[in-house]
């Protein structure tokens, strides 16, 4: 998985914007607004990648961001976007299923489009909860399987007519694994299953904010 993202890093942002038809900025912006972190909060950007979620939060409020990712090449892109004088940003190369911070460290966390990539999502969520302070909130943005039948039809067309053809066109042949990610979107949890998982690992006040007719959801939970 890390090798795949290392190879993908030069064109990750382009693919993201194309697959979402440019909506991914809006999803992260609206999510950042809904999470409403306070100035000075310490926020963990889990699976930060090239940083668009953490940067959307920082645009909203003057938080301190710790960006954690397995792949240094992805984090380097975030650093370039933030600028060299971004003293509010720390980069950490680590496995999110074993977060190298003590319990109760962060006021909040965001995780954008990383859930499907984790080997053990429950372990990743437990780790995020562990490093949050009591009262800290996680906003978990992810493609999810639609629950109602008209949205299932919409999603079927969206992935087969837009995402898959674009993926086949733009993803280098040496990256067949990325096609797995596209397939995995349809096999991932529904919003209700994600809420249940959040509750199972101990989050409370769990709720969903839906985007893109329910094919993308922000799951919010509080420690
Ligand atoms: C699809 S990208 C999402 C990036 C960013 N959060 C966004 O909103 O665009 C997923 C990122 O998760 C990272 N990742 C995958 N598994 C991970 C793990 N176990 N621990 C930390 N990062 C991981 C990948 O390296 C990649 O940068």
List its salient traits.
single chain, 223 residues, Rossmann fold, 7-stranded mixed beta sheet, 9 helices, 46% helix, globular
Provide structural commentary.
The chain is α/β, with parallel strands linked by helices and 223 residues long. 46% of the residues lie in helices and 22% in strands. A 7-stranded mixed beta sheet has the order 3-2-1-4-5-7-6, sandwiched between helices. The chain is globular, with a radius of gyration of 16 Å. The structure holds S-adenosylmethionine (SAM). S-adenosylmethionine binds next to helix 1, helix 4 and strand 2. The site of S-adenosylmethionine has 22 residues, from helix 1, helix 4 and strand 2.
What is the structure about, briefly put?
The protein is an alpha/beta fold and 223 residues long.
Q: Residue-averaged pLDDT, rounded?
A: 87
Structural class: alpha/beta
What's the arrangement of strands in the largest beta sheet?
A: 3-2-1-4-5-7-6
Shape: globular
Number of distinct beta strands: 7
Strand content: 15-25%
The termini sit apart by: 29 Å
- Rg over CA atoms, rounded to whole Å, is 16 Å
The largest pleated sheet is described as: 7 strands, mixed
Kindly report the CATH topology. Answer: Rossmann fold
Total DSSP helices = 9
Hetero compounds: S-adenosylmethionine
Helical residues, percent: 40-55%
Class, according to the CATH hierarchy? Alpha Beta
Overall tally of structural domains: 1
Low-confidence stretches: none
CATH superfamily: Vaccinia Virus protein VP39
